[in-house]
UniProtKB/TrEMBL annotation:
One of its GO terms (molecular function) is RNA binding. Belongs to the pseudouridine synthase TruB family. GO terms for biological process: pseudouridine synthesis; RNA processing. SUPFAM superfamilies: Pseudouridine synthase (SSF55120). Residues 324-348 are annotated as: Disordered. Residues 95-236 form the Pseudouridine synthase II N-terminal domain. This is Pseudouridine synthase II N-terminal domain-containing protein. It comes from Electrophorus electricus. The gene is TRUB2.
Length: 348
């Protein structure tokens, strides 16, 4: 019969989301969650050590010098199973990290427990979009595109208006929309492409550079501004550089004050656990809540893999057809080459 610790450990299987604060490395978040879960699992009283039957030879007389001996069976606890000898019952819990956040950024960070780590790989291959809130400031440029970096340039910003900012954002979004269509490898003249575009379900089929699927201004008050970004295959450094390029397009400079992820695929910021809730009592209900989502991610990944295999086979068949040439054409081409060489010799 399974103990309470084993039953609790079996429940730690799936995906959930936490809120990573700014200034904290993602490794520290992972290690803190793992430590809290190990404390919870090992907090239960260990099972009683198993007993071992041991036969002891004892004198049968009244005195110890008696020559008559008897064999007596006795039960003794096995010291190798004692918790002071064996140590804690669980020493490691596999905690996986999804699309990572650097120390400067904050927001939703997806973690996996047990077999949920395979779903993390499926989530990464599915090229899901993510939402960010970017807070920027016009008037200066730094070496790492953040407000805490070394200032390398200062510029004016009084000529910038919200209309000019939105015009630049529309240009950037239009260029990224073309890139999304190109990397999605969908025929634009089909009904399938139209339906995917209307539903906003176009995504790259293979690994692609960062692509912005949505970009709009939420707040504008010089020198500060706030943008909402939906993107695929991005990095936080790319997003900070994006604000720098927006400043250059407006004939100024800009730095990033804050990067906050509000959504990572199906995981939203409302579902993310804060630092106080990185405990087993809060993580287990969150894993149970996302159990159906985890199964859906795995199912969609299997479909995507089958589609990619079918596309690869089709491309191989097309390649074989293009490389196959009839023997007569080789002979014909060879005779033409010989004729041309003879003509050149006659001219010489």
């Amino acid at each position: 019969m399974a103990t309470q610790a084993v039953r609790l450990f079996r429940k730690l299987d799936g995906l959930f989301a936490v809120y990573k604060p700014q200034g904290v490395h993602w490794k520290l978040v992972r290690d803190t969650v793992e430590t809290n879960l190990l404390k919870a699992v090992n907090s239960f009283s260990p099972p009683a050590p198993q007993c071992m039957v041991q036969f002891q030879v004892l004198p049968s007389g009244e005195t110890s010098n008696s020559t008559n001996l008897t064999v007596t069976a006795s039960k003794l606890p096995t010291l190798s199973d004692h918790h002071l000898v064996a140590g804690p019952q669980f020493n490691n819990i596999c905690v996986g990290v999804g699309h990572r956040l650097d120390a400067f950024s904050s927001g939703v960070l997806v973690l996996g427990l047990g077999n949920g780590n395979t779903a993390l790989d499926s989530l990464y291959r599915s090229h899901v979009s993510r939402d960010y809130i970017l807070e920027g400031e016009f008037g200066m440029a730094t070496n790492d595109f953040t407000h805490t970096g070394r200032i390398i340039e200062r510029s004016t910003y009084e000529h910038i208006t919200q209309d000019k900012l939105e015009h630049v954002l529309a240009m950037i979004q239009g260029a990224n929309q073309k890139a999304l269509i190109m990397y999605s490898q969908v025929d634009l003249h089909t009904q399938e492409a139209y339906e995917l575009a209307v539903k906003g379900m176009l995504h790259p089929q293979y690994k692609s550079p960062p692509i912005l699927t949505g970009l709009r201004c939420l707040h504008f008050q010089l020198p500060h501004f706030t943008l909402e970004v939906q993107c695929v295959n991005e990095t936080q450094k790319y997003l900070r550089k994006l604000l720098h390029e927006v400043g250059l397009e407006l004939r100024s400079t800009a730095v990033c004050n804050k990067v906050r992820r509000t959504r990572d695929g199906p995981f939203k910021i409302e579902d993310a656990l804060t630092h106080r809730n990185w405990t087993a009592d809060a993580i287990i209900p969150s894993v149970t809540y996302f159990h159906r989502t985890t199964q859906k991610i795995r199912k969609n990944d299997r479909k995507a893999v089958n589609q990619l295999d079918g596309m690869a086979e089709a491309q191989d068949q097309i390649g074989n057809r293009t490389t196959h040439v009839e023997p007569g054409t080789h002979q014909k081409a060879g005779s033409q080459n010989l004729a041309s060489e003879a003509l050149m010799d006659s001219k010489q």
